[in-house]
Design a protein that fits this description.
- Two copies of one chain form a homodimer.
- The first copy, chain A, is of the alpha/beta class.
- Chain A has ten helices and eight strands.
- Chain A has a four-stranded parallel beta sheet. A four-stranded parallel beta sheet of chain A has the order 6-5-7-8, sandwiched between helices.
- In chain A, helix 8 crosses helix 9 (about 225-240).
- Chain A starts with a strand and ends in an 8-residue tail after the last helix.
- At the A-B interface, helix 1, helix 4, helix 5, helix 6 and helix 10 of A face helix 1, helix 4, helix 5, helix 6 and helix 10 of B.
Chain lengths: ~270, ~270
């Protein structure tokens, strides 16, 4: 079974898409075909969309599913004339919130991801920081870090740092553990002074072997033996020094980042 | 007026938080204090949470607002005993979807951001690609790019490329336009062969001046004159060569990225 799903928004539609995908992931035997229509904010566009939904309904003989966030009630009513199962993410909760908070919603479009000077600079700064301190670079900046991730190569440090910057505005540096670092019982020299900011990432050796093989097939670096050795030594170090660490083996970037934020008690820096 | 908002999820809670923030942004005179409780999946945790909500209700004399996504109905019922305005993002739409699709939801936790091998490698590859081709580096990889962003320094290219990689799994390279590139009427040599993949970013000169000043105060690079010159020449180039471009001045990273995906007709590579 295949169903067509429209994501209609007067803004980016990223939130609506995320809601739709979480909900529809609960129905595993259905194949969903997503059509996204961000920045839909004119009657002409909605008219075209209604026409499109109609055509699909006629062709597929089953109504499409629409997830929408349209602030303008005129456009919203217009969209609802289409033959679809319509989930209006905007209005479902807004009435109840209005009663609770004793004031009407402003009705302004796309307030969530609008650019505000403050959060713009915070995010860009955090991304710049992650890039400047990636892979052990720029250790002179560590005192400005919110968190410093350490772990073996390909444990997930870089994408997690970038995600922490983009999503939370946090300054995340990362330092790769390598051969030299395993010969001592202490944290590597460059990060030694920042123990309270350090968070470890570990990974299952077989998974690491798979990831490194993807990158450098048949290398010593990717060998199962090397992966087992590095992971064992890294985990030993985490335990010996007493720093928190997280196993990234079956975790997505979102899961790793959320775990770090939660476990390290970090505060989101952007709204 | 200040209200406490709980985001409770058995998974990352990122979707729930995004919904909550979009909705509450509609009430501008209220200050919302967010408390996030990701990975809430035991009765003990929910018990503690109910206690916490109770305490806040007693202290603030107004009930907190709870946005939740808990797949487990037992935990969900338990959470609902707390004195709060409760928005159950999970169940609001699930009943209707179940009827429409003619099958029960699987009830599995956190399917959205779960790691699947395929999307894991696609995302990591896309982030690696953005890093390897940032700021004009790695032009030998351009043939593998989904999109190549060009624009003056600090027009928003790098964070947009990273976001396109993390959010869409798209391989986005970026090439900075500089002095040399303005002396000719054609696309710069390294990107010349890829006109159909190129997307331009532009920015208001005054805004660019502000951003560059933040980075290198009182430099020639940040001067209003230089910013005006570069932007004028870049836009001329975009028009002359006939490539699509987008003004990032008052756009967030999400808005820039969504616009590019939409305008360039790119397809999301990860679920």
């Amino acid at each position: 079974m295949e169903r067509t799903v429209f994501i209609v928004s007067d803004h980016t539609g990223l939130t609506a898409e995320s809601v739709a995908r979480s909900l529809l992931a609960q129905f595993e035997t259905v194949r969903f075909r997503y059509v996204t229509r961000p920045f839909t904010d004119t009657e002409e566009e909605v008219y075209g969309l209604v026409y499109e939904i109609n055509s699909i309904f006629e062709r597929e003989q089953v109504r499409p599913i629409v997830f929408s966030t349209l602030a303008n009630p005129v456009l919203n009513d217009q969209l609802k004339t289409a033959p679809a199962l319509h989930f209006d993410l905007f209005r479902t909760y807004l009435g109840e919130l209005e009663r609770e908070l004793g004031q009407p919603p402003t009705g302004r479009v796309g307030r969530l991801h609008s650019v505000s000077d403050n959060s713009y600079f915070t995010r860009i700064d955090a991304v710049d920081f992650a890039l400047a301190t990636d892979d052990g670079l720029g250790d002179r900046h560590y005192q400005m870090a919110d968190v410093i991730l350490i772990g073996v190569s390909r444990a997930g440090k870089t994408p997690t740092c970038l995600f922490l910057g983009l999503q939370y505005g946090l300054r995340a540096a990362n330092y790769p553990l390598a051969e030299d670092d395993f010969e001592r019982d202490t944290l590597p020299e460059p990060v030694k002074a920042y123990k309270d900011k350090i968070f470890g990432l570990t990974i299952n050796p077989a998974r690491l072997h798979q990831i490194r093989t993807q990158r450098k097939p048949n290398s010593q670096y990717a060998s199962m033996e090397q992966c087992e050795y590095e992971v064992r030594r890294a985990e030993l170090l985490f335990k010996r020094v007493g720093i928190q660490y997280f196993d990234t083996t079956s975790a997505s970037i979102e899961e790793i980042a959320t775990n770090i934020v939660q476990s390290a008690g970090l505060k989101r820096k952007i709204g």
